[in-house]
Design goal:
The protein is of the alpha/beta class. It is built from 6 helices and 8 strands; from the N terminus they run E-E-H-E-H-E-E-H-H-E-H-E-E-H.
Length: 161
């Protein structure tokens, strides 16, 4: 079994501690934040803003069926909606339903995967979050590019975090 890479200093001298392979379960956000599939985009926008999250999982009859990002909401609403220059058609974009703009083909990752595996999957698919599943395939959290960057930095430079 190969040894994990060692952290090096500026003089390329090995540091005392090898980089530890953190798991997705250690860095994910949980429980997953959800929104009903029939909710309107204005509700999703407000929920995202209130929670500080960038992703919501879409629930239909108690099951998570899709993911909705803040970028999905922005892409499908008029930039004038809710503002002083808004026209009716602009505000109508906020009344679209979440299920109309959500992503249903979710790329998932197991909670025991390493952060490096998660980073590779995010890059391969060009996405910004991975729903995290347990052994039963149930979504138990989410890991984002920001979570992974933070975790990798903490693994490589424990004193920097």
């Amino acid at each position: 079994m190969a040894q994990p890479p060692r952290v090096t200093t500026q003089r390329d001298e090995p540091a005392d501690t090898p980089i530890r392979a953190a798991t997705v379960a250690e860095v994910m956000s949980h429980p997953p934040r959800t929104i009903d599939a029939d909710a309107e985009l204005w509700e999703a926008r407000d929920a995202l803003a209130a929670s500080g999250a960038h992703h919501l999982f879409v629930e239909d009859r108690g099951r998570i069926v899709a993911v909705l990002s803040d970028r999905d909401v922005l892409r499908h609403t008029s930039p004038y909606a809710g503002g002083i220059a808004a026209q009716r058609r602009d505000d109508d974009t906020l009344r679209r339903h979440v299920f109309q703009v959500a992503t249903y083909r979710m790329v998932t990752i197991h909670r025991d995967a390493t952060v490096q595996e998660a980073a590779v999957r995010l890059l391969e698919h060009g996405i910004s979050c991975l729903p995290v599943v347990n052994d039963h395939g149930t979504i138990v959290g989410v890991v984002t590019t920001r979570d992974l960057l933070r975790a990798m930095l903490e693994c490589a430079l424990p004193t920097a975090a």
